[in-house]
Amino acid sequence: MDMISSKDIKGLHIEPTSKCNAACPMCARNLWGAVTSDWLVEKDITFSDLKKMVSPEFIKQLDYVVFCGNLGDPIVNPELLQMVEYVQTHKEKYNAFGFDYHEEWGHDPYPAQINIHTNGGIRNSDFWYQLGEVMGPNPNRVIFSIDGLEDTNHIYRRRVKWKNVINSVTNFKRGGGRAVWEYLVFKHNEHQIEEARKLSEDLGVDEFLVKKPIGWTQTQENVDTIDAFEVYDTDGSFSHYIEPAEKKEWKNIQVINKYVLKKPMLENAEGKLDFSLMTHKQKHFTQWEIDGAKDFDEKIDAKCMKKETEVFISYDGSVFPCCFVGSSYYNVNNNSYDYEFKKLVEGLGLDSINGVKHGIEKVIDEVWFKKVFPKYWEGKNKLGVCGMFCGKKDIIKSIRENERDV
Ligand code: SF4
Ligand code: SF4
């Protein structure tokens, strides 16, 4: 396998925070849309630390920066504006191609130079106006995750207030930013797509993207067994189900996890969900299950080892070769491969991948690309998480395909 180095990195994915105003039921940061997961540490990356990790020279080599993450909403970070300005300043100064994409090509590169993903439910009008001014119309954009209309958005985007979302989009557009409305389709909102599209036009939104959510399980090949996702309130009472869309065109089922463990008994004597029983799921794993993760694929086609790769910085300044393994480290879920990866990082020591201490390039070059991964993509040492995402099933590809406007 040809070795690449940090000089080949073209994309940077930053998770500015692990905090969020919402509680989406299928998000890693909380349990069934009710309470925050007990393993989650709520923290922001500081602007000062970001500058230690990401130098102007490093920004210069990038084609794009994504502010998103696995565990929080970027907009919550109190220094996000400064971070965006910092990237923007050095992108303009050091733009790798030295020209305005839109003017030269008549279209923008995908992804745009700076992308921010948000539920849009927080921060005041001034903030959104300023963000619009800082980002400008091109080639940057804010992707608002709005899954329905006033009567449905909160069914999945729990705790997000509709009037805040409308205020955020309106003021961001007023400031001159480019807005994308991204609409995840479920059973409860599949009838509102055209109405939402029309509203997006009225608000001056630039793009309206409809996405099929991933995560519904198909337990046997060719058997259409779609799970509904249970949602609970903070006291453990059942609230409602999130169900996949019924229309064929919006359905998306796929095998996400071959090694789902049976849920432990979670109800207490009153029949309510006892969240404390969800703690430390990793203790349920056996060696057999960890070894089982290695059966995923014979070959791993590592996307992080290709030219123009993207790297990931998590909310605590740790640097990972991609957000998928980043997620595995923090969110040891029902998967033995998460557990396996967490053990690997613990063996390395979290300190060794700290971007604030060592700088992003050093972590990528000296830890991940040279020391760790080549050893874990071959033979018996193959990592389950990499087999899952970069093996034959190629879940990354299917996720990317789901990001298209459909
Ligand atoms: S808005 Fe994003 S980070 Fe917040 S709960 Fe929903 S999916 Fe998770
Ligand atoms: S899943 Fe593994 S092999 Fe694939 S991009 Fe991420 S770190 Fe690389």
Query: Helical stretch count?
Result: 15
Radius of gyration: 21 Å
Taking the sheet with the most strands, its summary is: 8 strands, mixed
The low-confidence runs, each spanning 5 or more residues with pLDDT under 50, are: 93-99, 107-111, 218-225, 254-265, 279-293
Separation of termini? 36 Å
Instruction: Report the sheet-strand fraction.
Output: 5-15%
The pLDDT mean sits at 80
Number of strands: 12
Instruction: Estimate the helix proportion, in percent.
Output: 25-40%
What does it look like?
By secondary structure, the chain is an alpha/beta fold. The chain has a single domain, classed as TIM Barrel (Alpha-Beta Barrel). Helix content is 33%, strand content 12%. It has an eight-stranded mixed beta sheet with strand order 8-7-6-5-4-1-11-12. Helix 5 (125-135) packs parallel to helix 7 (162-174) and helix 10 crosses helix 11. The protein is globular. The model is unreliable at 93-99, 107-111, 218-225, 254-265 and 279-293 (pLDDT under 50). The protein binds iron/sulfur cluster (2 copies). One iron/sulfur cluster is lined by residues 20, 22-24, 27, 29, 72-73, 119. Residues 300, 302-304, 321-322, 324-325, 385-386, 389-390 line the site of one iron/sulfur cluster.
